[in-house]
Recover the amino acids of this structure.
């Protein structure tokens, strides 16, 4: 019985260390949402390598709130953000923003009557 208690206590301690280390790693690596915002640039947006760069995440606030996406047509969105449909028909629906510790943040566009009706950001 006593050995079982040590095992559970050890597992709890290991989990605590893991959680603190993960938090610290996120803090040290910039943790995606802790990066400094920067002005949106269509040219810079299109040139970003989303596998390694956080540049799109830094621009997303300016894009969504100053430049704006709602009300834009598919051709306006493609001119602004580029075409990432990879051969799919219809308006663009997703843009990869930047990597996180485990996966990516993604900008999703929801279309209504041929225009962007709303957008949201989610973790893939």
């Amino acid at each position: 019985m006593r050995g079982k208690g040590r095992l559970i206590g050890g597992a709890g301690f290991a989990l605590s260390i893991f959680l603190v280390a993960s938090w610290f790693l996120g803090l040290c690596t910039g943790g995606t949402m802790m990066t400094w915002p920067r002005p949106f640039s269509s040219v810079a947006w299109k040139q970003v390598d989303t596998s390694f760069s956080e540049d799109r995440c830094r621009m997303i606030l300016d894009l969504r709130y100053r430049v704006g996406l709602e009300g834009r047509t598919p051709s306006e969105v493609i001119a602004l953000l580029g075409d990432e449909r990879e051969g799919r028909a219809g308006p663009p629906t997703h843009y990869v923003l930047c990597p996180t510790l485990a996966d990516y943040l993604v900008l999703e566009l929801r279309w209504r009557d041929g225009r962007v009706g709303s957008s949201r950001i989610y973790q893939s």
